[in-house]
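WARN retry 2 of 3 for item q-0093 after timeout on previous attempt; input resubmitted unchanged.
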Amino acid sequence: MAILICPYCKSYLSDSGEKTYACVNKHSFDIAKQGYINLLPVNQKKSKDPGDNEMMIAARRNFLELGFYDPLIESIKNLDSEKLSFETKDIVAFDAGCGEGYYSEKALNNLPGLTTEIWGTDISKYAVKNAAKKYKDNLYFVSSIYNLPIANASTDLILSVFSPIMAEEFKRILSKQGYALIVSPAPNHLREMAELIYDTFRPHTTNIVEKMTSTFEHHSTKRSTFKIEIKSAEALLVLLKMTPYYWSTGIERLENITNKSEISVTCDFNIDIFKPID
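OK item q-0093 returned
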């Protein structure tokens, strides 16, 4: 299905068969050797290489592939099966802020009774490069969440996991019968790690529902909470590098964590489902 549009003129993009995507106005975008395309214009960049860097992407992939967040994946898939109803068995699923592709591959594939064509985007070219290289059956591109190069009403399911959201853009690209599924930190997410760094723990707060309900109806919320047992300093450091704590905390406080080899950590997520308002 053609869902991509040119970031310059908004015409449809199509695979030219010559390792490029092009529009009728002859704007063209090369397909990288890993299989992704870069649809982020220079004037939408706030830095030379926006988004997560290579170290952050590698840390996230290493952690996720150890299976620690598998219960979250199962919660998302169960919600897809129990709460979502589509008019057709063939749907277009879009991972908004896909990172290295783990969630789009694991949570949007093999949904009971559905065949999913999976697309994903991230502003980090390192993330998209890794996603496209590993998950070759999915289609990934570099872009901004705030200016998605995606046609109106061309997607059926949007997944956003710990990523920036833009309700107006999500509404524009989603079909009238579609759903947006947003995963955000619930109050006690990674509480034990925070308690080692800060004098007073402050539960996570979120304004996801407030942000989304200007253009969406809030369908339901599911909270997914579980413990993970970290049993090596290496695994703990990988988890730490996935979080803002690693980048915003002094060395002395970080050593409270890095000196530990075992810790039980609470993982706490809100999964909110939204439907577009007519």
